Fold:
Amino acid sequence: MLESSDKQVLDTKDIAILEIIQENATISNKELAEILKMSASATHSRVQNLKERGFIEKTLTVLNRELLGFDMLCLIHISLHSHNIEQIEEFYKTIINLNQVLECYHVSGQFDYVLKVAMRNRKELRMFVLEQLTPIPYIATVQTSLIFEELKFTSSLPLRQ
Structure:
């Protein structure tokens, strides 16, 4: 049994469903039911229940970034001049609308935010930093790190230790 932070309990079948579908979101309900040794209707009901309870937020398709020409993956560290709520909210609105930003994290430490961005080449990265980030008046520092090699990429949570 697994208890979530808001005290919702997941049994072993729920955990098994989540483990399977986070690795293969396109698995059919019939295949899932066979793996779980459950009826198709019971499996479907459990999956729907997990969605309704918020354990399953959405289903994604992961594209091959490099085959699509996005050969550069970068982390961009950003510091703001100040931390007043208006500037933070404006920063959020701005960053959310930048398509190159795959992920954005508010972090502790030397920087305030870390962005993960995908670019096609150095020229595109340069234009993004100079034309879209540095003109934002409340950004104090922008530091870019190129990712040479992606050693591990997953969105799967370790549900069982």
